[in-house]
Amino acid sequence: MRLVVLGGGESGVGTAILGKEKGYEVFVSDFGKIKDKYKQILTDNKIAFEEEQHTESEILNATVVMKSPGIPEKVAIVKKLVEKGIPVISEIEFAAAFTKAITIGITGSNGKTTTTMLTYHLLKSAGLNVGLGGNIGKSFAWQVVEDSFDSYVLELSSFQLDGIVNYKPHIAIITNISPDHLDRYDYKYENYIDSKFRITMNQTEEDYLIYDADDEAITNWLQNNKTRAKLIPFSLTKMFEEGAFIKDNTMKVSINQEDFKMETEAIALEGKHNMKNAMAATSVAKLMQIRKATIRESLSNFQGVEHRLESVLKIQNVQYINDSKATNVNATFFALDSMNTPTVWIVGGVDKGNDYNELMSLVREKVKAIVCLGVDNKKIIDAFGDVVDDMIEVNNMNDAVKMAQRFTEKGDTVLLSPACASFDLFENYEDRGNQFKQAVQNL
Fold first, then answer.
1. Fewer CB atoms inside 10 A, N or C side of the chain?
2. Does the annotation list 111 as a binding residue?
3. DSSP secondary-structure letter at 417?
4. Per the annotation, does 109 bind a ligand?
5. pTM
6. Annotation-wise, does 327 bind a ligand?
7. pLDDT of residue 82 exceeding 90
8. What is the pairing mode between strands 367-373 and 88-89?
9. Are 202 and 289 in a shared domain?
């Protein structure tokens, strides 16, 4: 049994360690450089690896291949594996076979990290023996080796779901769907939507699918396709006998003939989109039979997620907000929608086929100036050049923050919400967010 792992990052190294423990002959291959800490771990575990190349003779003799989510299907080596009929799966698929723990799988274009962290917070605070993994934190496969959790809360990207065959979460959540990563889906939105719904494809009548009933892409899919899972909707506008909704500034969650109520202002998270995240997480807590008092307390003390509408500092009565995690238009829509003061907006990066028209009414209403932070800002300038009074281009974070400050008056907000990927000027969105926070502190 030969396991080949493509990609020597967190998920790849975790899978390699699990594979070795389960008796596979393991080989790790990364077309880029492998970080020193991971190389050390592979060496310590006597796992063979290569970097900056893919040696076909070492890869095409695999029994099974785990492909890291960042590697597209279009890559030559992946195509050759598929042609040879060698299974190419994700870490989630590989690791799930080796654990009896139940999993709560959470996907969506936006809100999945907040919902994942909040769900984990609810279950952990209730004393459950629960792990956190997937697209976040420590590799799921690695935890299957080292820990013995009864349940896992997993954040799942569409790329991870593309690589599943038999995996099924006991509880699945789809937070919302909006166009994202279309470059990986032949620029077909329906392919991306289908990819998200793979989360429910193996679910049975014993399992649950929690979903946003206000989301057009989700409701259309459910009208035209079947899932065997029990459906639990949540909504800001509709009411359900079974599901979650908001009425009279109160969140109500009804599941298995039991009701839970909480005033929305007592919930630590703010903004309409966060009420949805709270409804989804609370639905899980109810399914896991967590006490009402524990749910209330956890919802009221949750700290939120770094780089997601994170308040950094107030300087000369101007609030600086880090929303670096907003890597698509829909996430930035939520951010702008929650602004209550005149806003200087820092935007830009690697465009993933964005349609900025969706933001037009919010920009007209809320944005006084735009700072473009990217290598190529043409689309942003074309979209908003005539809409705002002031617009400037910069190519590093310090300049972005300094220029933003110049446009502000007392009572304004400076919002970093890029709507784009970060790879033109930064390592990743965390690096971008941390540089923003540092630049603000240096003002």
1. N
2. yes
3. -
4. yes
5. 0.82
6. no
7. yes
8. unpaired
9. yes
